Amino acid sequence: xxxxxxxxxxxxxxxxxxxxxxxxxxxxxxxxxxxxxxxxxxxxxxxxxxxxxxxxxxxxxxxxxxxxxxxxxxxxxxxxxxxxxxxxxxxxxxxxxxxxxxxxxxxxxxxxxxxxxxxxxxxxxxxxxxxxxxxxxxxxxxxxxxxxxxxxxxxxxxxxxxxxxxxxxxxxxxxxxxxxxxxxxxxxxxxxxxxxxxxxxxxxxxxxxxxxxxxxxxxxxxxxxxxxxxxxxxxxxxxxxxxxxxxxxxxxxxxxxxxxxxxxxxxxxxxxxxxxxxxxxxxxxxxxxxxxxxxxxxxxxxxxxxxxxxxxxxxxxxxxxxxxxxxxxxxxxxxxxxxxxxxxxxxxxxxxxxxxxxxxxxxxxxxxxxxxxxxxxxxxxxxxxxxxxxxxxxxxxxxxxxxxxxxxxxxxxxxxxxxxxxxxxxxxxxxxxxxxxxxxxxxxxxxxxxxxxxxxxxxxxxxxxxxxxxxxx
Length: 473
Fold this sequence. Notes:
68% of the residues lie in helices and 0% in strands. It contains 17 helices and no strands. It has helices at 14-25, 28-31, 34-41, 45-69, 76-83, 86-114, 124-141, 143-174, 199-213, 219-222, 230-259, 271-278, 284-316, 334-353, 355-391, 405-423, 428-448.
């Protein structure tokens, strides 16, 4: 078995990849889910986002070191197969693909709900079907078209966040006649019970919400098979994106809590809507609805891409149907995209008939899947580093910082978050549902995977001697 990505085209530029990761990781976790984190930790939630962002950065650097050494489309699924065990690759690959599918189901349904704002008499399924067809068309056109549209989708979200930060800071400093201006400012971060109103435990408990807000950023690794000059593009994207996401979260929530006391951010409406309304922008609901729809389209677009490429990689490993390796003349893995679209339609139907049970179980599974993927990435990286040292291979061109201390601390942190998921009552179902999922995937592996799928995936080491300029290909 070889590591060829024969049918895929390298059409993703640095701009595409950078905004794709921003688009997938900046979504409902910031626009809506941040309210829950604020209520759990108070203003000290900013500390949780800083610590969580640092951990995610280490996960991405670990993934980046493996991607530069082995730039393949299956990414961490194939790394886990090679450096841990074929079962680990099967588990993390299918878990990531299913996680992307679940999030896409949520986003498709959400768009149908958002459209009721303007068209209350139109059935929700009409909008959901239209969105699924639109996303399918984008993903079938070719990777460059996909990357360009994803860039513009993500740009809308980022512009909205920057506008909030700028407008919020301006109101805090100059007032502009906004009612209650004298009560706005950094003092709101220490009043109303103090900076850490729920104590140290409140900050710890908030990690169960905070960490999942960063979920999806690992999609950068899946782009390796279609990135132009991956050894240059991917390290640049990995170094910049986690820091930007951290700044967006911390700055945005800091400004929000300076304008509006944290005790008033109840989650009944998005913090973004309440802030825009509080500074006198009465059309906030309509404008924010456009942003929410764009955010959902962006996330769905990236989710279908990521899941499709992961299934393509699993097929190359012998752990998915061989037909998933087929590509069109445009370099699109046609069978994986069609499978995801069909699955998305089935998921929407299930969501319609059994909304309470299905959404609860699938939401819990997506929560568990995020940290499982990150943990496997870290373990695969640690085992790769051990093999490099043992076999005296060329040193990495993009090594993780502070090795090995920072890597082991990040593993401990991620394991701690998994334990917290089981301790905190609201998130405990996620752990149980996740363990059931692992049991089901394990049964499938031993029942159906044979031959090459039971062998460690063969990865070609493309490391160049440091300081040597690679020849043009």
